[in-house]
Amino acid sequence: MNTVDTIKAGYIAGIVSVITNSALFALKLWAALMTGSIALAADAWHTLSDSISSIILVVGVKLSSKKADKEHPFGHGRWEQITSLFIAFLLGLIAFDFLKKAIIQFTNREAVQFGTTAVVITIISIIVKELLAQYAFYISRKTGNLSIKADGWHHRTDALSSIAVLAGILFANRFWWIDSVLGIIIALMLFYAMYEIIQEAITKLLGEEPGQDLIAGITEEVKNIYPHDLQLHHFHIHNYVVHKELTLHIRLDKNKSIEQGHTLATDIEKRIQEQFGIIATIHVEPLQ
User: Fold this and answer.
1) Please, is 211 exposed, middle or buried when counting C-beta atoms within 10 Å of its C-beta (0-12, 13-18, 19+)?
2) Is the whole model's pTM more than 0.70, yes or no?
3) Which domain holds residue 218?
4) Deepest in the core among 4, 20, 132, 272, taking most CB within 10 A?
C-alpha cells in the first residue's frame, strides 16, 4: 500500500472509530441513566475515551503526512510513533482507574446491580467494539501503521471491559466479588497492552535491526549484481514511516579505484530501492 493509501486508511479508521464510539457512548449512558447502573455509566465514559484516542490518531496521521522540509529532512512520519505513545499513555490511565476502582469495590464488598436493558446494551457494545478492533488490526497489517494498531487495542480493551460488565450482570447474584476480580484482571491486561505498544514504538524511534528475511533478500539481490562475496554486514534500518532508510557496509577488493567502489555501491543502492522500496546508504571497506 502506497503512502497516499496509508494516510487515507488512517483517516478512515479514525473517523469510523470516532463516530461509532460516540454513538455507543450515548447508548450506554442512556442505559445507565435508565437502569441506575454505575458500572455501565463507567463503561460509557471508557468508550468515550476511545473517541479521544481516535481523534489523536487522526491528528497523528495528519502530522505524519507532512512532506519533508528543511528542519525535518526525513519527513514527519515518526509522528505516528509519537501518537501511539500518547494512546498508550491514555490506555495506562484507564487501566490504573480500573484497577483502583476494582480494589476499592472488592475491599468494600460491593455488589453491582444491573437490569435487562444493561444486558442488551453490553452485548451490542462487545460485538461492535471487537468488530472495530478487528478492522483497526486489519488496516494496521495492510499499512504497517502502529498508531492504528494502538487504537485497535484500545477498542479491544473496551470490549474486554464490557465483557467484565456482562459477567457481573450474569453472576453478580451468586458471586458478589466477580465484578471486582474481573476488573483487576482486565486492568492488568490493559497494562500489558500499553507495554507492548510503548515497546514497539520506542524500538522504531531508536532504530532497529532489519529482519533476517530482509537481510537474506538483500544479500541475494547483491549477488545478482556482483558474484563475489562482498561480506555485507552492519545492517541498520531507520523507520520514518513514510519511507525507510537502510545503512550497511560492504567489503571490496582494496585494489579497486574509488570510482569503481562508488559505481558498485550506487548500483546496489538502486537495486535495493527498486526491489524493497528502501533508500540505502552503503559504506565501502577494503577487503583484507
Assistant:
1) exposed
2) no
3) 212-287
4) 132
> To 5 degrees, how large is the angle CA 226–CA 229–CA 231?
115
Name the CA dihedral angle for 137, 142, 144, 148, rounded to a multiple of 10 degrees.
-40
Which of 191, 206, 221 lies at the terminal end of a domain, its last residue?
A: 206
Q: Cell 519533508 identifies what position?
A: 68
Residue 90's CATH number: 1.20.1510.10
pLDDT digits (tens, 9 = 90+) for 199-208: 877 877 776 6
Residues 6+ positions from 2 with CB-CB distance below 8 Å: none
79, 82, 86, 87: CA torsion to nearest 10: 80
Check whether residue 75 and residue 191 sit in a common domain. yes
67: which DSSP letter?
A: P
Say if residue 109 is exposed, middle or buried (CB neighbours under 10 Å; 0-12, 13-18, 19+).
exposed
